[in-house]
TrEMBL record:
The keyword Cytoplasm applies. It catalyses: NAD(+) + ATP = ADP + NADP(+) + H(+). This is NAD kinase. Its cofactor is a divalent metal cation. It comes from the Bacteria. The active site is at D45 (proton acceptor). NAD(+) binds at D45, G46, N122, E123, R148, D150, T161, A162, Y163, S164, K165, S166, A185. It is found in: Cytoplasm. It comes from Lapidilactobacillus gannanensis. GO terms for molecular function: NAD+ kinase activity. Its EC number is 2.7.1.23. SUPFAM superfamilies: NAD kinase/diacylglycerol kinase-like. HAMAP family: NAD_kinase (MF_00361). The keyword Secreted does not apply.
């Protein structure tokens, strides 16, 4: 198989990436960063986000695997001490995969005729640093609310355990075809009124954010951000493309959530209360 191994710059990730490459070569695979069939990211969920953006123009040909050099992640199924088992699974690969929805972000800028398109694995936000943003928010082209506050976040189900969760969003099972919008510090008074709860929209719906004409908004798409361009509107919808992960073993999503967010605290409670 043609495989790209991408590690983050940390020493541990680089060491694990080197060992993994050697093991893959010894098993007869080819290392190919241009046209890989399999992309293995070594680091954390953040490293997998980077790998996704590097190959997001060839998603129909590529499956992803994440190796975590710390704890297990939401995109990272394998730990760094499991390289022999991982390589064995790749040797026995039969093309099995699981796919998850992505967020399509279409941005109309004041100074550009055609919209710019981006794909997001976690979320996209529109924010402003010191000042508040004023936007009208439409669902399916119908005005839903007028927002004033720090910003808006729209997340995929897999992104629901990242920034969206810190904003009070619900954790969504990644098999759901849905998008979640959360507010970032909305102002609610007699003049500005928003729902003030996260909302989850259906697969055939879309969210449009029409910004007032300030030039200093920050638009983020996962770990990337752009500043100081005047944005007319942003249209968020579920993308046609999906991300595919090579799935060699099953891990219950809610076990992963428990492990990541409750972990020892939960275990301690069980021990203390005998439950
Ligand atoms: P990063 O190091 O790539 O990620 C920041 C943290 O978020 C890391 O601990 C990372 O886990 C974790 N993470 C990433 N995707 C996740 C997911 N789907 N579920 C659960 N945890 C996830 O940092 P970055 O390059 O600055 O930004 C990338 C991401 O950071 C954004 O997409 C956003 O979700 C998140 N972010 C969060 C906040 C917040 O919670 N207040 C604010 C801004 C940005 P690993 O340690 O496994 O890499």
């Amino acid at each position: 198989m043609r495989i790209a191994v991408l590690g983050n710059p940390g020493n541990q990730s680089q060491r694990v990436a080197t060992e993994l490459k050697q093991r893959l070569l010894a098993s007869g695979h080819t290392l190919d960063e241009r046209q890989p069939e399999l992309v293995i990211s070594v680091g954390g969920d953040g490293t997998l986000l980077n790998s996704f953006h590097r190959y997001n123009h060839q998603l129909d040909q590529v499956r992803f695997i994440g190796v975590h050099t710390g704890h297990l992640g939401f995109y990272t199924d394998w730990r760094d001490y499991e390289l022999p088992e991982l390589v064995q699974s790749i040797n026995e690969d039969q093309g099995q995969s699981v796919s998850y929805p992505l967020l399509s972000v279409a941005v109309d800028y004041q100074d550009q005729e055609e919209p710019s398109h981006f794909l997001s694995l976690n979320e996209s936000t529109i924010r402003r640093n010191a000042l508040t943003i004023k936007t009208d928010i439409y669902i399916r082209d119908e005005l839903f609310e007028s927002f004033r506050g720090d910003g808006i976040c729209v997340a995929t189900p897999t992104g629901s355990t990242a920034y969206s969760k810190s904003l009070g969003g619900a954790v969504l099972h990644p098999r759901l075809e849905a998008l979640q919008m959360t507010e970032i510090a909305s102002i609610n008074n007699r003049v500005f009124r928003t729902l003030s709860s996260p909302i989850v929209i259906a697969p055939d719906e879309w969210i449009t954010i029409k910004a007032s004409s300030a030039a200093d908004y920050t638009l983020t798409v996962d770990q990337m951000s752009s500043h100081n361009r005047s944005i007319k509107q942003i249209r968020y919808s579920i993308a046609q493309e999906r991300i595919r992960f090579a799935k060699y073993r099953h891990m219950h999503f809610w076990s992963r959530v428990e492990d990541a967010f409750l972990g020892n605290a939960q275990q301690e409670r069980r021990l203390t209360h005998g439950i």
